[in-house]
Write a structure and sequence with these properties.
By secondary structure, the chain is an alpha+beta fold. The chain is built from five helices and three strands; from the N terminus they run H-E-H-H-E-E-H-H. The protein has helices at residues 3-10, 19-26, 30-38, 55-64, 66-70, and strands spanning 16-17, 45-47, 50-54. Strands 1-3-2 form a three-stranded antiparallel beta sheet. A hairpin with a 2-residue loop joins strand 2 and strand 3 (50-54).
Length: 81
């Protein structure tokens, strides 16, 4: 994956992503997005019922997991979570 493609993919999104943005970006169901957030697969922070999702962190996460995502596999949870 070319880094320029990654930049173009995320260009239209704001700095703070929503779960709906993740559904659209990755073509995932709502349930999968929440499961990946809750298990720490996608880097994010939860404050009460609100998910704080940084576009830059997700973009870095996509880059780091590009081969796994390309194969259609679910990435492992990050150790930061």
């Amino acid at each position: 994956m070319d880094p320029k493609y990654l930049e173009a993919l995320f260009a239209k999104y704001p700095e703070r992503l929503t779960t709906q943005h993740l559904e659209e970006l990755f073509g995932l169901s709502r349930n999968t997005v929440y499961r990946w957030l809750q298990t720490g697969v996608i880097p994010a922070y939860q404050v009460e019922k609100t998910w704080l999702i940084s576009k830059d962190q997700v973009k870095d996460w996509v880059w780091e997991n590009r081969n796994t995502l390309r194969k259609g596999q679910a990435p492992e949870a990050t150790e930061e979570s």
